[in-house]
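Q: Structure tokens for this one, please.
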Amino acid sequence: MLLSRYQYDYLEAGCDEAGRGCLAGPVFAAAVILPDDFDHELLNDSKQLPEQVRYELRIEIEQKAIAHAVASVDNSEIDEINILNASFLAMHRAITKLQLSPQFLIIDGNRFNKYQDVPHKCIVEGDAKYFSIAAASILAKTYRDDYMKQIAAEHPEYDWHKNKGYPTIKHRETIIKIGYTPYHRLSFRVSDPQLSIFGEDSLR
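A: Here is the predicted structure, written as tokens:
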């Protein structure tokens, strides 16, 4: 069962990202502040939910959240600063966009670059433990999927409307065959065999 808050002394925002393991497109991140009494039986890590449920949950999250924001870092920036720093930067941008300034941050994962002077706690698999991080994962994932579906029309041969930029076998083979688009991350290794497992598991 997910928890509402990590602590109750300060206004808390949950943060998560989507698209870190992709070969193309931006990395998206979201920050969400939820009411203390928020509860939802379906809300969980976005990777564990069907696409339709994610989009239904997005509506509820945006209606019930005290504050929420989504931001991104594009593929060119990712190539410049690396994907880890880009993920942190996307979260920073989302936090900055919040209509309320959080006093405490809970971050999905085990690493984070401090945001201004706001204290934070990194939580491994936090999107399966805290509602605000799970909500952030839903927003980041669905808004990134929307973006990838939009640019898929420009380059249909890469199958982004299905793979969302993740390193599926077809996506990698297409890159090897016809090359990169302006949306691809040039610093990522297309031929890395480990990517196929991560990529296939991230398409839900």
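A few notes: Residues 149 and 161 are 5 Å apart (CA to CA). The domain at 12-150 is CATH 3.30.420.10 (Nucleotidyltransferase; domain 5).
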